[in-house]
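Batch job 17 of 40 flagged for manual review because the log was empty.
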Amino acid sequence: MKDLLPHDHNAQRLSKQSFTLAEFFETQTPHYTPQGLNRKVVVHGHCHQKAIMSMSHEASLLKKMGADLELLDSGCCGMAGSFGFEKNKYQVSQTVFKHELQAHIETASQETILIADGFSCKTQIKQNSGREALHIAQVMKLALDQGQLENRQLENPAGLPRNDGYRREWITAGLATLLIGAALAWHSSKQAKSITDPKLS
């Protein structure tokens, strides 16, 4: 936008407030420490981002997370927005995908996380390989969930109730069981006495 409208103040101001997610965390949150992710990660960058920006922030963020990163230099995925959906361009789209990106996808293990922020890239990968590529936001959420699970396992390896809320629930359930049992016992005792003592019936 700043290149299209170089003399427009609002365009220049807006351009300075527009970030990719990784760029925001890398440039606007200097004290942020991402959750670790000890996984192999293969990243395919969107053509538009690679053309006017770079993938450096994504690479930096993932490295901070501890990921074993492979940043592909595989050109276009072939979908290019709606290009690959058009009947007369479908074969070209497939040829572009098979030129390089397909081999990277096929050689990646099932444990490897595939990242493709572009919607068209995700669609092309899904339709041609059955693999689900994730947005970097999804990968960050995956790392957070994994970290929380690991922390819970470290704090509570036996899987016992971890906090007062859980303890209160167990105590309440126990008391309810005792009260129900006492009521049933009292009712059974009363019925037994009514049978043996006609005055109680």
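Reviewer: the log was empty due to a logging misconfiguration, but the result itself is present. The longest strand covers residues 40-43. Unflagging and moving on to job 18.
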